[in-house]
Amino acid sequence: RLQQHPQRQRRQQLRQQPQLRQQHPQYQLQQQHQQQHRIFYHQHNNFVWATTGDMNSPRRYHTSTTLTNGNILVTGGNNGIGYLISAEVYDSSTRLWTLTGNMNTARGFHTASILTNGSVLVAGGYSGSSYLNTAEIYNPTTGLWTLTSNMSAARDYHTQVTLANGNILIAGGYNSGSGILNSTEIYISSTGLWTTTGKLNTARRYHTVSILTNGNVLVAGGDNGGSTLNSAEVYNLSTGLWTYIGNMSTAREYDIQVTLSNGNILVAGGYNSRSGYLSSAEVCNSSTGLWTTTGSMNFIRNHHSASLLVNGTVLVAGGYDGIDYLTSAEVYDPSTGLWTTTGDIYIERDYHTASTLTTGQVLLVGGQNGDSVLSSTELYG
Hints:
This protein is mostly beta strands. Among the domains are: about 65-175, 6 Propeller (Neuraminidase); about 200-295, no CATH class. It contains four helices and 34 strands. The strands form ten sheets. Strands 1-34-31-30 form a four-stranded antiparallel sheet. A four-stranded antiparallel sheet has the order 2-3-4-5, with no helix packed on it. A four-stranded antiparallel sheet has the order 6-7-8-9, with no helix packed on it. Strand 20 (about 255-260) and strand 21 (about 265-270) form a beta hairpin. The relative contact order is 0.13. Pfam families: Kelch_1 (PF01344), Kelch_KLHDC2_KLHL20_DRC7 (PF24681). InterPro entries: Gal_Oxidase_central_sf, Kelch-typ_b-propeller, Kelch_1.
């Protein structure tokens, strides 16, 4: 399963054959750039990032959700041996992790969203043996999980967002029976039932999603099984239909997507099946639906994290560049369109999550580097 994407095969080759790694055309440039970055920031690092409590279990392919009380719920994932049924909560005041109730089903590559009543819905994913259509709800007061109705389609690598009306929209993804999906469905939070809604114009997985200021939903990029996508489409909350908007200038998957303070949408980095790993970034004007290229990141990266900071800038951290797992982090300023490197994280990682605390700090959780799955967490700010 973990070798179904070509970049994973290339990653394995580079790890197993050091001579290939050193001959890689990006190797010398990346090493020089990263060394300069580390030397410059090492003395400042402790003022930017701080290590915090380790999770009770190492995990990748998990979810992180900020609860209404400011704590962070982490669910499922994979510990390098198998898929996890466990969940744990980060206490933002003590900076410690506590195990909470187990989910009913072990899952990774799933999604999670907070509901208007403060509970958390997780849906879909992969159990290690099957793709899942099950969904369940976490009650933060009791720490217990309750199964809710099943989705119409099993899926992983889908997207999930909470709509302005409190319902949950799930789009795309993959399962072994149907392949890459164009189906979408809505969880009605008042009834606990799922209903299918308009299909995507393009089946996609590995895509990204954002809520627009008018309440509609933008999905962009991803993969259709044959190639990386540059298309983007918007879900109309009133009609239940998807409409294409302008294409991105660069097809990308495994990138990040963030809604900026002005309502526009930033995408950055990722992977392109033709050109490889990306540092490029672009912004979608939410009024016109058109994309404009903006400053490129200082590092190519995919499987990285992104967080909107309280001052309106965007922090990206970690990831993988085709050769190395990254410790680098950088900040995008929407007013200038430029990226500025900031302090390195302590441990290189990809497939981690990032959550914003009520203090404005950003918590990085878990992930992997090489063959190691991580239990470590770090705070920015």
